[in-house]
């Protein structure tokens, strides 16, 4: 998406990253079919639709139905023309959705992982630690299968919380922060983003507080990932892609932090060893210097691309 997973500022604007690289990698053309598994504000979808022409089709998925409400207005003409379908869905079920919607044998699938500007700016669910909002952190607050982060913080053991923060946030002070969360919640529940932010800052050693917001961002990232089951969803979705793509079809994944990228890299290598995919990016593509000047939040984006085996090979390696 537009933002890195650990970017938690409140002045965010939806700027899709690596758009030209995605278009070059997926090779959309007239009459082709594409699945955007994380359509968000539609930044990549607009670029792909431009190349798909009047006869092409794009299926856009997003876990947050409030995002899709805005998108249905913004791209109403494409929806009316039958070029675009949008659905509230978790990409963990991508094969089932593709089959139901008539998109099996797609020419391309895109995953743009990470956090949306919408969630930071307007969702009111505590994604931005600069706002005094309820600490929910669910992409879809109506999803009965997900517990809000406030409930997680009330019930999780301190040692388990430390593992969550260390694993999904890669935070060096995970144990100190988890212990202090335990001390604070024994006196009062932590219910807002601001309360959690203050709790994290209090837990840090004095010398680390100068750059304490980095630790805050990493903790919020970790809680968000666990609350939404993001890694599990990605690990579930990726093995479904060879069945969804036609032979020669392509998958592109933009990841914003090392944990996601490792999952993608590991899957690509396994699928390549099994003869399902051919890896087209020896190393992940990164944003250009020009893109970073216009959108500094793109700095951690990494794009990996692969092609389904079983048909005529495509245009070869992407990005050199």
Task: Give structural notes.
By secondary structure, the protein is an alpha/beta fold. It has two domains: 177 residues, Vaccinia Virus protein VP39 (Rossmann fold, 3-Layer(aba) Sandwich); 82 residues, DNA polymerase, domain 1, CATH 1.10.150. It is 44% helix and 13% strand. It has a seven-stranded mixed β-sheet, sandwiched between helices. Strand 1, helix 2 and strand 2 form a beta-alpha-beta unit.
Please give the CATH architecture of the largest domain.
3-Layer(aba) Sandwich
CATH class of the largest domain: Alpha Beta
Q: Ends: how far apart? A: 24 Å
**Number of domain units:** 2
If you consult CATH, what is the topology of the largest domain?
Rossmann fold
Label the structural class.
Answer: alpha/beta
Number of strands: 7
Show the helix and strand layout.
Layout (H helix, E strand, L loop, with lengths): L18 H8 L6 E4 L6 H10 L4 E6 L2 H10 L1 H5 L3 E5 L5 H8 L4 E7 L4 H5 L27 H7 L2 H12 L4 H14 L5 H11 L8 H17 L1 H8 L3 H4 E11 L2 H16 L3 E3 L9 H6 L7 E7 L12
Parallel strand pairs: 1-2, 1-4, 2-3, 4-5
Antiparallel strand pairs: 5-7, 6-7
């Amino acid at each position: 998406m537009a933002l890195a997973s650990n970017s938690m500022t409140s002045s965010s604007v939806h700027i899709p990253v690596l758009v030209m690289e995605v278009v070059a990698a997926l090779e959309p053309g007239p009459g082709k079919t594409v699945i955007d598994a994380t359509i968000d504000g539609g930044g990549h979808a607009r670029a792909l639709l431009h190349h798909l022409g009047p006869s092409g089709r794009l299926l856009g998925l997003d876990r947050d139905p409030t995002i899709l409400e805005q998108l249905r207005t913004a791209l109403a003409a494409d929806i009316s023309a039958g070029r675009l379908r949008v659905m509230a869905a978790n990409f963990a079920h991508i094969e089932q959705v593709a089959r139901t919607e008539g998109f099996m044998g797609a020419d391309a699938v895109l995953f743009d992982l990470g956090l949306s500007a919408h969630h930071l700016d307007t969702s009111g669910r505590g994604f931005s630690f600069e706002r005094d909002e309820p600490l929910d952190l669910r992409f879809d607050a109506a999803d009965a299968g997900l517990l809000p982060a406030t409930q997680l913080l009330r019930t999780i053991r301190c040692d388990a919380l430390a593992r969550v923060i260390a694993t999904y946030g890669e935070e060096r002070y995970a144990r100190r922060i988890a212990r202090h969360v335990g001390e604070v919640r024994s006196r009062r529940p932590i219910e807002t983003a601001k309360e959690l932010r203050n709790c994290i800052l209090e837990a840090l050693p004095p010398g680390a507080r100068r750059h304490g917001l980095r630790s805050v961002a990493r903790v919020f990232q970790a809680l968000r990932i666990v609350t939404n089951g993001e890694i599990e969803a990605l690990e579930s979705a990726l093995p479904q892609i060879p069945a969804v793509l036609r032979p020669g079809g392509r998958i592109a994944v933009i990841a914003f932090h090392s944990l996601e990228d490792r999952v993608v890299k590991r899957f690509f290598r396994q699928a390549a060893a099994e003869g399902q995919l051919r890896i087209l990016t020896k190393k992940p593509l990164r944003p250009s210097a020009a893109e970073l000047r216009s959108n500094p939040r793109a700095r951690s984006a990494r794009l990996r691309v692969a092609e389904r085996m079983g048909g005529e090979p495509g245009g070869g390696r992407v990005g050199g």
